[in-house]
Amino acid sequence: MAYTNAVIDISHHNGTIDLNNAKQAGIVGIIHKATQGSSYSDPTYQNHFQQAQTLGLLWGAYHFGNGDDGISQADFFLNTVAPAANTILVLDFESNNGGSTMSLQEARDFVTHIQSVTGIWPGLYGGSYLKEQLGTRADPILQNCWLWLAQYGPTPVLPPGWTNWTVWQYTDGHVVTDPSPIPGISPCDRDFFIDTQSVLQAKWMTGTLA
């Protein structure tokens, strides 16, 4: 299987960055935090979006879920992003150290509403919290989403419901050292795609990596 190491995910935590450095380092796709809960929007999202558009980089947006109503969060995310047909959409489902944490039911409501509005199931980002919540049982709604696995280390371990990951966040630049750091951006989250770069680009243009 050919893995492609050409995607990074970023947020305001990365500070002021020049995405031209990412492009020069071989990155072709950016997935950026857009929103959190039902009222917070990332202050760097629009600026980085404009940079990416100018550079011809593929663009995606993710929503960090919290304990607010799942449908309200989905509407806030969609209204903030105003996604184009080739914008990848993702729900970030993880424990929230700074406030309330999204439940499985809120996640189901979120992804179902995204699908009902756009016609496409979003990606689902998750790691240890997702595995804890699922236990040993697959979720019949969430498994409609392609999996963006957060697993730092050499071996990805899947949650129940998926036969493989689509995107694998294998490092944050700290827990696992980035072998090819990007000047001016690293340390940052790095992600493998499970196929070739040409497949990545073709799928991305459809608005889903499934």
How would you describe this structure to a colleague?
The chain is an alpha/beta fold and 210 residues long. It has a single domain (4-179, 197-204), classed as Glycosidases (TIM Barrel), CATH 3.20.20.80. It is 28% helix and 22% strand. It is built from six helices and nine strands. It has helices at residues 19-24, 45-55, 70-81, 104-118, 128-134, 197-204, and strands spanning 4-10, 29-36, 40-41, 58-64, 88-92, 123-126, 147-150, 167-171, 189-193. Strands 1-2-4-5-6-7-8-9 form an eight-stranded mixed β-barrel, surrounded by five helices. Helix 3 links the parallel strand 4 (58-64) and strand 5 (88-92). Helix 3 packs across helix 4. The longest helix is centred in the middle third of the chain and has 15 residues, at 104-118.
| Mass-distribution shape | globular
As for the CATH topology, it is TIM Barrel
- The CATH level-2 architecture is identified as Alpha-Beta Barrel
Order of helices and strands: EHEEHEHEHEHEEEH
List the strand order in the largest sheet: 1-2-4-5-6-7-8-9
Q: What is the count of DSSP helices, taking H or I runs of 4+ residues?
A: 6
Instruction: Count structural domains.
Output: 1
Uncertain segments are none
